[in-house]
Each structure stands twice: as C-alpha cells, then as structure tokens.
Amino acid sequence: MNKFFGITAMGVLAVSGSAMASEPEQPWIVDRFDDIKVIRYEVPGFEELSLNEKEMIYYLAEAAKCGRDILFDQNFKYNIAIRRTLESIYTASTKRDSDEFKAFEKYLKKVWFANGIHHHYSNDKFKPEFSEKWFRKQLARFINDENRQMDDDLLCRIIFDKELYASRLNQTAGVDVITASANNYYEEGITQEEVEAFYGAMAAADEGNPEPISYGLNSKLVRDAEGNIAERVWKVGGMYSPAIERIVYWLEKAAAVADDVQRPIIEALIEYYRSGDLKDFDTYNVLWVKDTDSKIDFVNGFIESYGDPLGRKASWESVVNFRDEEACRRTAIMSANAQWFEDNAPINPAYRKEEVKGVSAKVITVAMLGGDCYPATAIGINLPNADWIRKEHGSKSVTIDNITYAYDKAAQGNGFMEEFVLREEDRERMKQYGKLSDDLHTDLHECLGHGSGQLAPGVKGDELRTYSSTLEEARADLFALYYLGDEKLIEIGLIPTLDVAWAQYSDYIMNGMMTQLSRIEPGKNVEEAHMRNRKLIAEWCYEKGKADNVIELVEKDGKHYVVINDFVALRKLFGELLCEVQRIKSEGDYEACRKLVEDYAVQVDADIHAEVIARNAALKIEPYGGFVNPEYTPVYSEDGKLVDVKISYPANYVEQHLHYGKDYSFLPSQN
Ligand code: ZN
C-alpha cells in the first residue's frame, strides 16, 4: 500500500533555510507538459556510503530499470508496440517545429509518463492533439517492414478512436469492470463473472489455510485452446521471461555482495521469480519484513494491485533506497509507542490488535525508481500487502524524504496557498508546520494506520471487493488524522503544539473537498482510491458537522474557501468515522462500504469542480508530478575491479526515456 502526494497548500513552504543560499540552485523542475511537471530528485548521502553499499545500490538500481516493459504491457497489450513506433518517428523526424510535431511530442511525453496510452491517474485514454492525416504521413515516412511493430490501421484506430479501449481501469458501479477495462491482466473477452468464479474456486479450495495465498497476483488470465480459463504466470520461462531474466541477473549480482542477512532475502526473491509460486513470494516477504536493520533496502516485484479493477493482479514496480539515519528518530518514537496507539484507538475494542507486532517505520532516501513507481511515485510505502503476513509478522513502512523534499522545492512560490487558503492564521500555521505535519501524517498513516486493527473471526478480507482500496486508505488516513491532534504527540516529543495538527486538518479537508478536483476532468467522477478516500473523509465530516458549523464552505468575491471553525470537534468526527470504517473492514460489511463510498467519495459538484480547475489553471500549476532518476556509473580499475560508483543527475526527461527505451527494453512488442 502506498501514499501519494496530494495537491495541498503545504507544498509551498520553504523546507529549511539551510546553507544553499550561496550556491546557484539547479532548477528542480526539468520538464512540464499538459497536466504534468517532471522534477529531479537528489540522493543526499550517496557519496558517503561505503563502496560495498554503493555497489549493491548500483546492481539493485539496474534491476529496477529492467522491468519497465512489463508495466507497459500490463497497462495495455499494445503499449510497447505503440511506444516503439512513436519513438521511431520521434527520433527520425527532422522537422520538429510544426504544431503537429509539437502535439505529437507532448503525446509521447505523456505516454512515457503514464507507462502507456492511458492517464496514470484518471486511467482515461489520451486524446491526441495531432491529426490522423499527419500521423499517417509519418508512418509512411518512418515506419517500414523492419521497424513496424503493429498494423498501421489498428494503431490509428487505437490512438484516434476515442471509444476504443477508452479506460484502462473502469470501476463504474454496475458495469462488468473486467471487460470495461483495457488493462492487460485479463485476456479480452473474459468477463468479471468468469474471473470471480475462477478465483472463487481457488479461494474455496484454500479455505481455512492460516496462510492464504494471494491468488492471481502474478499472472494474466487467458482462455486456453479448449476455451477454459487459465493463468499465464509471470516468471522465468513464463510470460515476461526476457525482462524477468534480466532482473534476476542483476539481483544475483546484488546477492553476491550482500551480507549474511540480506543474501538469503535476495535469493528468496530470485527463487520466486524462477518458480512463479506464490508460496515462494510469501516466504520472501516474511524474510524481507523481518529485516529492519539493513541500511540498504529495496522493493522489486509484482506488488500493488491498484491497476486491477478487482484488486488481484499486481503491477511490477521497484524502489531502491537506503536509510536516512537522522530522520528516523520520529518513526522510532512512533514504533516504541505503537501499542499505546492501538489500545487507545477510537474503535470497537474487539477490532483492536491485542498485540501490535513488528511495527517498523523508517525514513528513507530513494536511490532509484522503477516500474509503477516511475516517473510518478508514492511518498510512503507500507508492505507486504498480504493480511496474514501483516498480522503474523508485521509490515515495513517507509517515508521517502528526498522525494517529498523535491516536491516541496518544486512547489515553492507557486501562489497556491494564497489562492485557496482564506484565513491568514491558517496560512501561517501551514507555513510554520506544514512540512512537519505532512511528514507525521505520512508516518502515522504508513507505520501505524495500515498496521492497526484486526478482522472479526471468519472474515477473510476480500469481502469489500472494488471498494477495498478506498476503505483501507481511509482507515489509515483517519488513524493518522485522529492521532495527529492527540496531546500524546506532544508528550512523546513529536510535535511542539497542536497547531501542527490544525495545519494538517485545514489542508486535508480543503484538499478532499476542493483542490484535489483539479486532477479530474470536467464531467468525470472521482475514481482513484486515494482521492476517493480523501473526499470520503472530508465530505462525511462536512455533513456530520454541519449543525455545529465545524467545517464551513465560505463564499467570498465569487470564490469558495474551506474553513475549519472547530478543530477539536473535527478531530472527534475523525474518530467516529474511523470507528465505522474499522467496523466495516473488520466485519467485511460490503453493503455499508458501498454506500459510504458511493454517497461521499464519488460524485463531484460540477460548479465547485469548474471553479477549482479555473483557479488552478490561472496559477499554472500542474496537478501531477513525477521524476527523472539519477544515473549511476560504475568505475573499474585496470584489472576490472569495481572501485567506485559515481552518481549524476541528468536533467532531461526526453533523453532519459529514449535511453531506457533503448537500453532497458527486453520484451517483444506482443507478449
Ligand atoms: Zn496507504
């Protein structure tokens, strides 16, 4: 599970005075197009690592880049073919100043950013702003029998026919979410009913297993020659083998330089990539979650299931990181007090964990992003996802500090806070405590929120179906919001004053009710789980606190502002909603969950929506951010020994993607 960066006012605050004033600063934003800004991030502390640590990061970083094609193909079966065709045209073109070419370039930049032709957040297919006539001319000029990846007519229909494969992930209530979604987790023609029957049978056969398998996590569902539903497993020798073999190659190199604690963990991951057996994945996860001491850590595999409308198939991703020792102080304090938080949670005592196990949280510095974490990435990660492992062995939770820092730097002075925050006192609080309150919110969400609570006996955890991600994110956010305003945080030295919490409350509710809508196209509803969760919390509290005017929607000079009139009452509402959300999860109450989400988290007020988009557009703030990776270059001695790894920070988005497309592309165009 992961937490994404919201569109909040906090982004505008200065992070620290630091010593940087004297150096001319490199620009943080390296590219902007459409609704996207691309930011570079730095990796402070890399130079100070030992040679052995640098070498390990280098190998893991290579492994992180090798799965890029897998994600493209998972997102849509023609993505790799389309990307290759667009890149062939792009690199061969000499006339680059026409409007058509510029629109084409923008389209290609968006495809790189989304790892495919559907928007990474809204899941809608991109609308090209170049003409089919122009595009066909380019095909005729630059695409021949040698570099043709797919039929020209089919390619044009996919790009220009807006009905065809319109959404990568369609979760509209009442539709068959499998056939309505263009992702490549299920072969075309397979229905939701068939998928549910297929995995329902597997789950039934596994009934009573205390260590239930995450069926379907690492495979595509297909129809075999006899018409039966079957799985094509993603493993060495299976689907995506050429890319997985490269990943394994680099993991083996990393294992060879790892210490006795990490070597068996990496070897267990390799074993799983070879066997494709989900039991091996669990074995790996149990080993991985227990290792909280290693300085360098990484995620590499089929992890998050947000891209599958049924939440079963996992997209490929990788994050390589190392611990930020100084910043780990606050999460160490949280971990030490984890049981207190659990025991005092405002929920039914029956749904509290009697013993909170292995809550580990740390602040990390990211060294490489890959797959579904690139270019857009989460700022917090909590893994593994299997409920039984979390219960038996705990979970690892991280906050990614250098990414948050880069977001903050990129947002400085963009005028957002002045536009959307009405009261001076709120702006002051956000300026003073914004970064701290964002960091703490993320830490509480990841290291305590997701790990808290327990299911009632007999509840399996998959009852909430398409609503489960939204509810789970709401649960973790509510836990964080509720405790952020607790005096306990002052007592244990995490915050100097509750103003830190009030800064977060103002920001969170404003985002949930208004500002995050800038990410949604006019006429659309809220689809993405994290956005739904924020809207759910904000709208529910607005309605429940209406009689006491807890949250007020103020209109001034034709503009709307969200103002919190009673922070303490709002905190109480967070506690009440947390109680209900925990009950729904613990009891697997699908109907209550559906109603809560559909009533509060989905429908967008068209007038407010239009207003937010207009005000945001006037500020010229792109609602989405993503990153370019640093580059690592090994330095060898004359006798071929690795003696150093140099880090550099390329600042060209286009070059990075052309480079990845050339040197880290291992799959055929059709898989
Ligand atoms: Zn989360």
Radius of gyration: 24 Å
Structural class: alpha+beta
Task: Just give the CATH class of the domain at 3-53 and 237-627.
Answer: Alpha Beta
How many beta-strand segments? 15
CATH architecture of the domain at 3-53 and 237-627: 2-Layer Sandwich
Shape: globular
Small-molecule binders:
zinc ion
Polypeptide structure, described:
By secondary structure, the chain is of the alpha+beta class. The chain has a domain at 3-53 and 237-627: Fructose-1,6-Bisphosphatase, Chain A, domain 1. Helix content is 46%, strand content 14%. The chain contains 24 helices and 15 strands. The chain has helices spanning 51-65, 68-75, 79-92, 99-114, 132-142, 152-160, 192-205, 241-257, 262-275, 278-290, 329-336, 338-343, 387-393, 401-411, 416-420, 424-449, 468-484, 487-491, 499-513, 529-544, 567-587, 590-602, 606-619, 653-663; strands spanning 2-3, 29-33, 36-40, 219-223, 229-233, 296-304, 315-323, 359-371, 380-383, 395-400, 551-556, 559-564, 624-628, 631-636, 642-648. It has a six-stranded mixed sheet. A hairpin with a 5-residue loop joins strand 14 (631-636) and strand 15. The protein is globular, with a radius of gyration of 24 Å. It starts with a strand and ends in an 8-residue tail after the last helix. Residues 7-24 have low confidence and may be disordered.
